[in-house]
Write a structure and sequence with these properties.
Elements lengths: L1 H23 L35 E6 L9 E3 L2 E9 L24 E9 L5 E10 L17 E2 L3 E6 L3 E6 L4 E6 L16 E3 L2 E6 L6 E6 L5 E6 L10 E4 L4 E5 L5 E4 L5 E5 L11 E3 L2 E5 L10 E4 L5 E2 L12 E5 L10 E3 L2 E6 L3 E5 L6 E7 L11 E3 L2 E5 L4 E6 L6 E6 L11 E3 L2 E5 L3 E6 L4
């Protein structure tokens, strides 16, 4: 009975939010996946034809080997797939899987690297075009597990914007014609770990958060010309969280997560509200669900690993005080439940949390209370990619290329697993386009489709 009441109450909130969106925005078709975690940054599809079983050979429509290394996710517009990579013409050190110390590589590599953008055919996996955007020795370093192509591109259906941190933004039309370039001056990052925050696109502006150890800022570029519109300094050190454009009934705002503060800006770069209380490293991406904003920050060595749910319309400093878990603008905060690398997942009136070290939990998005506490995923090992959902299932991809398929329910129920090739490492979050699932690995891009002969 309590579960039914919880579901009914939150479903009404979700229905109201969805109604407002339907009346006030024109959402992209599900055949498009224009940015990291899709058009709403949630990683959810309602396409009932999507596959639930696959392997390195089963239900594989195609697989295309990729040069170099890149942990950016693929994006899709129509029948075009876009992604980025960086090729080391020298020798690359192979990363280990899992969380560990000793991955710092503070000295930039000396070998020549090639920064590239690719376009593939969604139906066949054939390379439609390939563009070299920059070549030379890197001017900054990366963590052993990071890449120089960890930022996911974004597209508006006319242009595709490829951002490489510490190098620049490179804009092409969908046929691969170079339209403009905006160079980014290299900046030092924490422990030389490199960059990873993807750009966000709204209307005719591209927004880039560059949080580093020297000169952090939020940048707005004209999407057609690449010219700077404004640049707002940020009192912040290195972070790796992608900004989120939150459109609700009151206004549109740019939400940015940081170690020092979460800050939300208006479309001219003016601060609307902020809050303190994050962990010391912030990676996950914010998103909206049921009329509320959800975000998390969960560095594994910190005692403070919060998940927040925020009501729209906040102003000023909305930080919690003392032992508070809610206030006028913070619907709830669970102070010790956030994952480190993966973003959380809101799906069918539940909030799922995938932890890097192989645990899985479920919370009530209405109040943050546990539906079930963290459960050990059998043989789960290490997770970096964010979970996704469709067809009443939640999917969690580990670094070994194994996807664990859970029932989207109030019980912890592992249905089955899907394994890819043994030589693959997986850290990129997959993309969904129509009835196809795209999984990027260290070696290749898989297109998974049900009933593929």
């Amino acid at each position: 009975m309590l579960t039914q009441c919880r579901t009914s109450r939150f479903s009404l909130q979700l229905l109201a939010a969805m109604t407002w969106l339907a009346l006030n925005t024109q959402l992209p078709a599900q055949d498009h996946w224009p940015q990291f975690r899709g058009h709403d940054a949630r990683g959810v599809s309602e396409n009932e034809a999507l596959p639930t079983h696959w392997s390195a050979t089963e239900n594989v429509a195609w697989k295309t080997d990729l040069p170099g290394r890149g942990w950016s996710s693929p994006i899709v517009w129509g029948e075009r797939v876009f992604l980025t990579t960086v090729v080391n013409t020298g020798t690359s050190e192979e990363p280990k899987k899992g969380l560990y110390f000793g991955g710092d590589r503070p000295k930039p590599p000396e070998a020549t690297h090639q920064w590239k953008a690719f376009c593939l055919d969604l139906k066949t996996g054939a390379v439609v075009w390939e563009r070299l955007v920059h070549e030379g020795a890197p001017e900054s370093s990366i963590h052993l597990k990071n890449s120089f192509a960890s930022e996911t591109p974004v597209t508006d259906g006319e242009r595709v914007y490829c951002y490489f941190g510490n190098v620049g933004v490179f804009c092409f039309d969908l046929e691969g014609t170079a339209l403009w370039t905006h160079r980014i001056e290299p900046r030092e990052t924490r422990y030389g770990w490199g960059t990873a925050a993807s750009p966000a696109l709204h209307a005719d502006r591209l927004y880039v958060v560059n949080d580093n150890d020297k000169d952090s800022y939020l940048l707005a570029l004209n999407a057609r010309s690449g010219k700077q519109i404004w640049r707002t300094p940020r009192d912040e050190k290195s972070n790796w969280s992608t900004p989120y454009i939150w459109r609700h009934e009151l206004r549109t705002e740019i939400v940015t997560l940081g170690t020092g503060k979460v800050r939300s800006y208006d479309l001219e770069g003016n601060l609307l509200w902020s809050l303190e209380g994050m962990s010391s490293i912030t990676i996950a991406t914010p998103y909206e669900y049921g009329g509320r904003l959800y975000f998390s920050s969960g560095y594994v060595l910190d005692p403070l690993r919060p998940i927040f749910a925020i009501r729209p319309g906040a102003q000023g400093d909305i930080s919690l005080r003392g032992e508070e878990t809610s206030n006028e603008w913070i619907a709830w905060c669970n102070h010790q439940s956030a994952p480190y690398n993966p973003s959380t997942l809101a799906y069918r009136d539940r909030l799922y949390v995938l932890y890097d070290r192989g645990l899985f939990a479920c919370f009530d998005p209405a109040n943050g209370s546990p539906i079930y506490p963290p459960q050990r995923i059998p043989n789960g090992r290490a997770f970096t990619a964010s979970p996704w959902a469709y067809g009443g299932n939640v999917f969690c991809l580990n670094e070994d290329g194994v996807t664990f398929v859970f029932a989207a329910s109030d019980e912890f129920r592992l249905l089955h697993t899907n394994s890819l090739a043994d030589d693959d490492m997986c850290m990129a979050t997959p993309a969904i386009a129509g009835d196809r699932l795209l999984i990027r690995t260290s070696a290749r891009l898989y297109c998974i489709r049900a009933n593929t002969k």
